[in-house]
Amino acid sequence: MTLRIAEIFGPTIQGEGALIGEPTVFVRAGGCDYRCSWCDSLHAVDSAYRHTWTPMSDAEIWDEVLRLSGGQALTVSLSGGNPAIQDFAPLIARGRAAGYRFACETQGSVSRPWFGDLDTLVLSPKPPSSGESVDWAAFAACVKAGQTARQMVMKIVIFDEADYDWAKDAHARHPDLPLYLQPGNPDVDPESPVDPQDLADRLEWLTERAMTDGWFTPRILPQLHVLIWGNKRGV
Amino acid sequence: MTLRIAEIFGPTIQGEGALIGEPTVFVRAGGCDYRCSWCDSLHAVDSAYRHTWTPMSDAEIWDEVLRLSGGQALTVSLSGGNPAIQDFAPLIARGRAAGYRFACETQGSVSRPWFGDLDTLVLSPKPPSSGESVDWAAFAACVKAGQTARQMVMKIVIFDEADYDWAKDAHARHPDLPLYLQPGNPDVDPESPVDPQDLADRLEWLTERAMTDGWFTPRILPQLHVLIWGNKRGV
């Protein structure tokens, strides 16, 4: 069995969410059941890039993770695209046997039994600005599958007021999931630089929004990789 | 009994370390047994500012925390200066009874029984660039006092190669403490703006340093409050 892999890179720090700052090797899966308007990983989503995705066995992926990490156990993040549309159970089993930790980031549209084997499951339902709509029954199935993961969190990207209000509803559906909010990044062209001041301004806006609203539940975090590297790939 | 308080502010997000992004009210204690060369809170450290520190009872501090948080339970961070040179046990007892969570950040030079009542104890031993030197016996006493805290971590600020090497030794002394590294900020004048690009560059340097070294243990995080607000006080 082979998996479609858009890129494998690292180690570098996880730039966002619950594991922010954590040294990580990223395995980015090719293919997605969503097409968010502001997607920052189109090269792993749009089928126009399909020819750039490499079919790899779990043994081949694992060899590359081992090479990049020098054989030192660290966190491997399964991202995409939506990694849940493929079967990562064999890779996770291989890596965990060697002491590696596994995280996975997915929108929560497709549930997998291997969610329960993860160290960190990040469920990231997409708000209205994405142009997608959430199937909450499918999402609940993901939460159920992830019950035995070491940690499971919800992360929501916020572009505007509508997204902010939506995030409150999403949290109300799953109040037991620790919540992370992330200001949206409208500058996703890998060729154009990102102004760190813009990123700071968006973080300030979202922070002020939640604080003046008296909503102290979510942690609010920027994308550090965008701060450091803009939208460059492979970092 | 009164405490010397330099400022109480928030809620705003915690800008650094284990609770990065967490909505927090900060209680900054006045007074410190250290005088780090790059201290970013001199107004709470240098006795020249002593006249600006307000003597407050724990009831008065608690009233202000309640007012700022609108009575909604959140995380209260005890910072300084070195908060451990004063007795915060009564404030912590008051706040915890109301469902608030408490974090404390201290260099680890003075141990307190109330460390064990904290939700988060951040021990931040100071590297060579600070001009201070660590009493490791006193530090170990802090670790012992914090054993019953919900989480206890080590955070180290890194300005240069010497600090980086020193952090490895510090980690080796207390390998069970989750480790956070933070690039140093040389621009601590509250009157002068901070260039977000400089902050990004320092984060990139430290990330590259650890990754190329194959040191995947620490989480590496910037100071988000500096990114957003520069060195302005009260945010």
Instruction: Estimate nothing, just give the exact number of structural domains of chain A.
Output: 1
CATH superfamily placement of chain A: Aldolase class I
Overall spatial form of chain A: globular
| Helix-strand category of chain A | alpha/beta
The major pleated sheet of chain A works out as: 9 strands, mixed
Could you give the count of β-strands of chain A?
A: 9
Organism (chains A, B): Phaeobacter gallaeciensis
Enzyme class (chains A, B): lyase
Binding site for [4Fe-4S] cluster (chains A, B): 32, 36, 39
Binding site for substrate (chains A, B): 13-15, 28, 79
Explain how this protein is built:
- The structure is a homodimer of 235-residue chains.
- Chain A has 235 residues and is of the alpha/beta class.
- Chain A contains six helices and nine strands.
- Chain A has one domain: Alpha-Beta Barrel (TIM Barrel).
- Chain A has a nine-stranded mixed beta sheet with strand order 3-1-2-4-5-6-7-8-9.
- In chain A, strand 7, helix 4 and strand 8 form a beta-alpha-beta unit.
- In chain A, 49% of the residues are buried.
- The interface between A and B is large, with 37 and 37 residues.
- Chains A, B: Belongs to the radical SAM superfamily. 7-carboxy-7-deazaguanine synthase family.
